[in-house]
Specification:
The structure holds two protein chains of two kinds.
Chain A: H1 3-17, H2 20-31, H3 39-53, H4 63-87, H5 103-114, H6 124-127, H7 130-160, H8 170-195, E1 206-209, E2 215-218, H9 223-232, H10 253-277, H11 281-306, H12 332-345, H13 360-371, H14 382-399, E3 407-408, E4 411-412, H15 415-441, H16 443-446, H17 453-468, H18 483-512, H19 528-561
Antiparallel strand pairs in A: 1-2, 3-4
Chain B: H1 34-47, H2 51-54, H3 58-75, H4 83-119, E1 126-130, E2 136-140, E3 149-153, E4 162-166, E5 168-172, H5 174-177, E6 183-186, E7 193-194, E8 199-200, E9 204-209, H6 217-224, H7 234-255, H8 257-263, H9 270-280, H10 283-302, E10 305-307, H11 310-318, E11 321-325, E12 331-342, H12 348-360, H13 365-377, E13 388-391, E14 399-404, E15 407-413, H14 414-421, H15 430-441, E16 445-451, E17 454-465, H16 469-478, E18 482-486, H17 491-501, E19 505-507, H18 512-524, E20 529-533, H19 539-544, E21 547-551, H20 556-561, E22 564-566, H21 573-610, H22 629-653, H23 662-694
Parallel strand pairs in B: 11-18, 11-20, 18-19, 20-21, 21-22
Antiparallel strand pairs in B: 1-2, 3-9, 4-7, 4-9, 5-6, 5-8, 10-22, 12-17, 13-14, 14-15, 15-16, 16-17
Helix pairs in contact in B: 1-4, 3-4, 3-9, 4-6, 4-10, 4-22, 7-9, 9-21, 9-22, 10-21, 10-22, 11-21, 12-13, 21-22, 21-23, 22-23
The chains are: A mainly alpha, B alpha+beta.
GO molecular function (chain A): P-type potassium transmembrane transporter activity; potassium ion binding
Pfam families (chain A): KdpA (PF03814)
Membrane topology (chain A): Multi-pass membrane protein
Chain lengths: 564, 698
């Protein structure tokens, strides 16, 4: 690694960690309807939205109403997007005259964008019209991220409120998350990207003749606006097929830094928002510490692994730098590994290199980041509520050891809560192991992998892990665009999203209804180094015990077979 | 058992308490030692293999199913697994279930032995029930319903729990309390409750039965310590759900391994997959969970406290606030002499002689304490009682004392004695007046003493705080539990005693309404409250409190409102109940953590063995250097079974809870059971592997 590699890492952490506390407080103020510096601009827009849709933002929902509103909204989004994708051939803003999508691919794509996964079995420039990209995908990029924020704040309210049914107004939460939480930041990022050379145009693709004399079609489009939200909303679905490895999607080292920071900026900020909800910033710091610990363990391992010399070249007396296969020469190894670790930790799924080409252990870190349930920063909103579920599990497991009924911030964890927690614990094993086993067993689907043996297994495992964890990044080398995989991966994304959201909202309702016992010397300490260690170990243990055998058959076996 | 109706027997107070009711009662009460219990428990371990019983422990049911499966698989030879290894795995799987059953049976045995000794004699008991026309007829006590009125004569056993509605009698409650001195039970007032199976030693009583068959205190207690009937406590239910969830996850992990292995071009022996499943699912805590619960209740029963539900015991571990009556809990019931002060003009000798004489004939506890105090401070030759003419306390004079050799010694409250001397409060010498004020301010009671019309001095009577109680409160404070002293005293007196006893708060001039209000207020702030009480007016507060402990010698109303009854009527036991509640929770948490932490080592033992044929490179994960794939898997299974046995004593005894902050408890227990749970199996599996290899079992 060179000096500029360290500089990149330093800049990355500084740009994320320094503004996050302020942004976190801003989100709290916004979501609780308090006045902020954006109110003069966005306030009128917000009020118009409420008036047009007939919503009274002061009416609060109980958890069931909140859930029904959320499901109805997502269902409507699904239907609209599915229709656009199927019918795009007959819809406007289609300068290339692209036909409608095949139904299983349309199903997969719709599910993928509604669930904030952005798994792409298609290549944007070859399959999607401008309308599909803008009015279809970009809209879902916004609202799926806003949905994550809404679920999170409902959960925060459930934890911080006492003896109440009210979790907030879903419509107001969605409106505020979109108008104040996502739009302004996206505007800033889009402008920065345009400045760095990312196209933002409705013009036709450009036909050019290359130096070699061959014809080439250079795709364009309204890219900057979609890239901004795909990064900030932890969506990850690229405007172009190769995502942020594409020179128009990520042209420079600066755009690379901005996009990289955007991946986890909001997830980190929301951890501080949580601290404001529970009126105890120590809780936020403990959670951040745990996330950072996991991130650093994974990131450092990945970095170390990627800089290992290739054992196959040991006999040849050559000086080895890190492998460059599958990496952009613009960015180099450190930027690629840092991106890979960040995008998988944060449920983003955008890539600036080919994960298939990473060394086995680097690939394993990407897998492991997702397997722990996308809780290391994780998706917008989704990462923190996933992390809070882990907090509750850690508290329940170890909480008994202080001789009291386990309590988190004064709320008792009883049979109902544990039932809901267990429901969320089952999601990853079902999506990854059960669906993955089906895919590995059936001869047709199993043939989707490009390599035999352990590496091929990693490819398959990665696809189902990425889908269930709502990450959306692809390992590559896996031909996912078949009806079987389109449907099964779509199903994985569905359970990976709503298999969490429903129990989380039910938990929010059940916690909100509880009294809260005062915190004191005999309450379970959920801050400080001891708890951070406990939480980190719990996450590693739960994830590790579930997925160690599969990792052994995939990346670990490959790593050992290659002679590393 | 063919029992004689006890009504026909004559009272026989010489029979030892626990057998007083039964001509051939098995001496079970003595047999609570583990040594006597393991044999029947062993039999029970096999009886409990019945899946209908085992379904209460879902994790163990899964193990039993896998044991059946493996037994069947032994008959189908698999070239990859030698039959001898398969047979051994099957045997150890059966052992795993049996060990868990044995733990439960052992825990049950102890509780049941105690319950049986209490229950003994209630079978075949007859009752004299009052008919509609006032006549009596003999019926079987088992048929008595709530509201029935029975008449009990001297020498008979009271046929069921109830309330005295007429009569007064001495009752020997040794059968349940172990205390042989009879107690008085009478209608009305605070001593009206009687317990079934206790013996009337005098007079007669008319008792209204207050419990239907199967609902009496005893029945409830028995239900707490019987595995098959026991209702699981809320925490246990929650933990059970988590264990089922983990079992399900590991089931998915193991079931999907075979397709993944096929994808890699290999095949995994079914027996080994079964072994992996059993080692991963939380068998340690799953097998001991029931035993922990029963043993916790049993500890309570051995304290002579009967809980009506396990829920209350668990809640005791959670309480934030203890409401404790001052009298009897924090202080001894009676005031005691703490000092004497002489009046100006009276020598210390005069004072102590006069005070002693004035108190010698006083039979009250206070009087005795004065005599005791002076004998210690100023020994003197005392006159024989025959030389004294006792003047007892009367409501009119409010004085007591003696006439001795023509001299008149009296002591009494300040105003009464001044009146006796014909003086006024203002006539008090200033020195003495100051002392008296001081005594009153510190919560004591001042008495004056006079001899032959001369004011000799003052006596300081005070509530004496029980020794050791301050330290108990200190421990509770470390656990984060606040103590509130409840007393009818005025705030000044109350505050003085509170300071001495080291309680956190005082509820002075307490009335039942004030108590109830205080409990509600604490609960509204999210706190859990425990209290004890005995009077009928305590009943609403006992019912409102999260943990209410009634005294056995209290009223029936209090006993019904409370969720625990202390047979010894010792309110201090509330502190022990809190301790037991905490131990129960800590034990469960510790073994759960231990159980899950164990899985790491098991993976390192089994995974390389399992995948040896597919990816031999994975052998690097065999960091314990276990001899062979077979020995690795067998060692893990054996460890998994034996660890249950090793932990049975801990499960039955419970993890000790020291008085410390939550953070301290967590750190210590995480270190012992979390880190220990990670490390121990690495050592254990390696040792077992060495043994198995040395014995050529694999």
């Amino acid at each position: 690694m060179h000096g500029y590699d360290y500089l990149l890492i330093l800049a990355f952490f500084a740009l994320v960690l320094l503004p996050a506390p302020l942004l976190g407080r801003f989100y709290y103020n916004v979501m609780e309807g308090q006045r902020t510096f954006l109110t003069p601009v966005m306030g009128p827009v917000e009020r118009i939205c409420y008036r047009l849709s007939g919503v009274d933002p002061t009416v609060e929902h109980n958890w069931k109403t909140y859930t029904i509103a959320l499901l109805a909204f997502n269902l409507a989004g699904f239907v609209v997007l599915f229709a656009i994708l199927l019918l795009q051939g007959s819809l406007p803003l289609n300068p290339q005259g692209l036909p409608g999508m095949e139904w299983s691919l349309a199903f997969n794509t719709t599910m993928s964008f509604v669930t904030n996964t952005n798994w792409q079995s298609y290549s944007g420039e070859a399959s999607l019209s401008y309308l599909s990209q803008m009015a279809g995908l970009t809209v879902q990029n916004f609202v799926s991220a806003a949905t994550g924020i809404a679920v999170l704040v409902a959960f925060c309210r459930g934890i911080s409120r006492r003896s109440t049914q009210h979790l907030g107004n879903f419509w107001a939460d969605m409106t505020r998350a979109t108008l104040y939480g996502l739009l302004p930041l996206c505007l800033v990022l889009a402008l920065l990207l345009v400045w760095q050379g990312v196209p933002q145009t409705f013009a036709h693709y450009v036909d050019a003749v290359t130096l070699q004399g061959t014809d080439q079609t250079i795709p364009l489009g309204p890219a900057a606006s979609q890239i901004a939200i795909k990064q900030l909303g932890t969506n990850g679905g690229g405007f172009f097929g190769v995502n942020s490895a594409h020179p128009f999607e990520n042209p420079t080292i600066w755009s690379n830094l901005f996009e990289l920071v955007s991946i986890i900026l909001i997830p980190v900020a929301l951890v501080f928002t949580f601290g404001h909800y529970v009126k105890d910033m120590r809780q936020s710091r403990a959670i951040i510490a745990c996330m950072l610990a996991l991130f650093l363990i994974g990131g450092a391992t990945a970095m170390w692994s990627e800089y290992q010399p290739n054992p196959a070249l040991n006999i040849a007396s050559v000086e080895q730098a890190a492998p460059m296969e599958g990496k952009e020469t613009r960015f180099g190894t450190t930027a690629t590994v840092l991106w890979a670790a960040t995008t998988t930790a944060a449920s983003n799924g955008s890539v600036n290199g080919m994960h298939d080409s990473l060394n086995p252990l680097t690939g394993m870190i990407a897998l492991a980041n997702m397997m722990v349930g996308e809780v290391i920063f994780g998706g917008v909103g989704a990462g923190l509520y996933g992390m809070l579920l882990n907090v509750l599990i850690a508290v329940f497991l170890a909480g008994l050891m202080i001789g009291r009924t386990p309590e988190y911030l004064g709320k008792k964890l009883q049979a109902r809560e544990v039932k809901l927690l267990v429901a969320t614990l089952i999601v990853m094993p079902v999506g990854v192991l059960v669906f993955g086993a089906l895919a590995a067993t059936l001869p047709g689907p199993a043939g989707a992998v490009s390599n035999p043996g352990a590496h091929g297994f990693s490819q398959l495992l990665y696809a189902y892990t990425s889908a269930t964890a709502n990450n959306g990044s692809a390992f590559g080398g896996f031909s996912a665009n078949t009806p079987f995989h389109n449907l099964m991966l779509g199903l994985s994304m569905f359970i990976g999203r709503f298999g969490y959201i429903l129990p989380v909202l039910a938990l929010a309702g059940s916690l909100a209804a509880k009294k809260s016992s005062p915190l004191g010397q005999n309450s379970f300490p959920t801050h400080g180094p001891l708890f951070v260690t406990l939480l980190t170990v719990t996450i590693l243990l739960v994830g590790g015990l579930t997925f160690l055998p599969t990792l052994a058959l995939g990346p670990i076996a490959e790593h050992l077979s290659l002679g590393f | 058992m063919n029992m004689q109706a006890p009504v026909t027997k004559s009272p026989d107070s010489k029979i030892p308490a626990s057998k007083a009711t039964n001509h051939d009662a098995q001496p079970v009460a003595a047999k609570t030692g583990l040594a006597a219990l393991w044999r029947p428990a062993l039999v029970q371990a096999f009886v409990k293999l019945d899946p209908r019983q085992l379904h209460r422990a879902p994790v163990m049911l899964v193990v039993e199913l896998t044991a059946v499966l493996t037994t069947v698989l032994c008959l189908i030879p698999d070239p990859a697994v030698p039959t001898s290894v398969a047979v051994q795995i099957a045997i150890w799987l059966w052992f795993t279930v049996l060990f868990a059953n044995f733990a439960e049976a052992l825990a049950e045995g102890r509780g049941k032995a105690r319950a049986d000794s209490l229950k003994a004699g209630s079978e075949g008991l007859k009752a004299r029930i009052q008919g509609a026309n006032g006549s009596y007829e003999m019926v079987n006590a088992a048929t008595l319903r709530k509201g029935d009125v029975v008449r009990v004569e001297a020498g008979e056993l009271i046929p069921g729990d109830g309330e005295v509605i007429e009569g007064i009698a001495a009752v020997n409650e040794a059968a349940i309390t172990g205390e042989s001195a009879p107690v008085i039970r009478e209608s009305g007032g605070d001593r009206s409750a009687v317990t079934g199976n206790t013996r009337l030693v005098s007079d007669w009583l008319l008792v209204r039965i207050s419990a239907n068959p199967g609902e009496s205190t005893l029945d409830r207690m028995i239900a707490l310590v019987e595995g098959a009937k026991r209702q699981k406590t809320p925490n246990e239910v929650a933990l059970d759900i988590l264990l089922i969830g983990l079992t399900l996850i590991f089931l998915l992990v193991v079931v999907t391994l075979q397709p993944f292995a096929h994808f890699a071009g290999g095949n995994l022996p079914l027996v080994f997959l079964v072994a992996l499943l059993v080692t991963l699912i939380p068998t340690t805590i799953g097998g001991l969970l029931s035993a922990i619960g029963i043993a916790g209740m049993d500890r309570l029963v051995r304290l002579n406290v009967i809980a009506k539900s396990g829920r209350a015991v668990e809640a005791a571990g959670d309480v934030h606030v203890l409401l404790l009556d001052k009298t009897g809990t924090i202080t001894f019931g009676n005031r005691r002499c703490a000092a004497v002060y002489s009046a100006p003009g009276a020598t210390p000798k005069e004072l102590s002689e006069g005070t002693l004489l004035a108190s010698l004939a006083d039979d009250t506890a206070e009087g005795k304490s004065i005599v005791e105090y002076l004998r210690g401070q100023h020994p003197m030759t005392e006159p024989a009682p025959s030389q004294l003419t006792a003047v007892p306390f009367t409501a009119e004079t409010r004085l007591s004392g003696v006439d001795f050799e023509g001299r008149v010694y009296r002591k009494g409250a300040v105003d009464s004695l001044l009146k006796f001397l014909g003086r006024d409060r203002s006539d008090l010498p200033p020195v003495l007046a100051r002392e008296i004020d001081k005594i009153a301010k510190t919560g004591g009671t001042p008495l004056l003493v006079c001899g032959d019309g001369k004011l000799l001095g003052a006596i300081h009577l005070k509530d004496v705080v029980k020794p050791g109680i301050r330290e108990r409160f200190e421990e509770l404070r470390k656990l984060g539990i606040r103590t509130v002293m409840v007393t009818g005293d005025n705030p000044l007196t109350a505050a003085a005693i509170a300071a001495e006893a080291g309680v956190d708060d005082v509820l002075a001039e307490a009335t039942p309404e004030k108590k109830l209000e205080r409990i509600r207020q604490e609960q509204n702030d999210g706190r859990l409250v425990a209290m004890c009480g005995d009077g009928a007016n305590d009943a609403p507060a006992l019912a409102q409190a999260d943990v209410g402990m009634a005294m056995n010698d209290g009223t029936q109303a209090a006993r019904e409102a409370a969720n625990m009854v202390d047979l010894d009527s010792d309110p201090t036991k509330l502190l022990d109940v809190v301790q037991i509640g905490k131990e129960l929770l800590v034990t469960r948490g510790a073994l759960t953590t231990f159980s899950i932490a164990n899985d790491v080592a098991k993976y390192f033992a089994i995974l390389p063995a399992l995948f040896a044929a597919i990816y031999p490179q994975l052998g690097v994960l065999n960091i314990m250097h276990l001899a062979s794939p077979q020995s690795a898997i067998l060692s893990a299974i054996v460890f998994n079974a034996l660890i249950i046995v090793v932990l049975i004593p801990l499960a039955l005894r419970g993890v000790r809870v020291q008085a410390a902050s939550a953070a301290h408890l967590l750190r210590r227990n995480l270190l012992v059971y979390g880190l220990g749970g990670l490390v121990v199996p690495f050592v254990g599996i390696k040792v077992i592997d060495l043994l198995l290899t040395a014995l050529h079992l694999v």
